Amino acid sequence: MSELRLATRRSPLALVQASSVQRRLSEFGVTCVLVPLETRGDHHAQVSLDQLGAQGVFAVEVQLAVLNGDADVAIHSAKDLPSTTPDGLSLTCVPERLDAADVLIGRSLAGLGPGATVATGSPRRRALLLERRPDLRVVGLRGNMATRFAAAGQSDVDAVVVAAAALERLGRMTSPPNASTPSGSCPRSAKALSRSRSETTMTRRSSCCRRSTSLTP
After folding, report:
1. 42 and 84: one domain?
2. pLDDT level of residue 198 (50, 70, 90 thresholds)
3. 80 among known catalytic residues
């Protein structure tokens, strides 16, 4: 194999994440090329995930690229993966993760008054916020990181929940005002790599990653 083809979503954050895997593999002498793809979830960016009504809306097209022979490895955020792995694929490894916390952009959690509006598209984040602060108004939000930064500056939104790792990867950890970590939050899943079971390439090179059984920080 002359080069390893890495399938990934084409969103800016996904490309940064995939590029980090590409750089890590290059340290082991592996030449990689990214294969950016648009998923169903990306195509219907204005539709809530509940309305899309299916698992894997950010993963299926990336997985199919491997199954169809258009890529050798699929790179995902593990939170986007369906609960079961499709036949013909296996979870190969989980790279070292960055900060697993969620952060608020805008006001801090303590600075949010009763009835304040917090935006997130994640059911997990919504549940955790309302468990700690049932007085908050949590509204849905879809879109990439640029959309979320823009929402944090709108008059009808007091704060937006994002992943600390996303800010770190995009070099924005220190730039958002009042970024704060809601203590006690349950972290999201890590990034993961899957491959065709017929491929042996990644098993020989998986020393650059945590094994697939290691899903904790």
Report:
1. yes
2. very low
3. yes
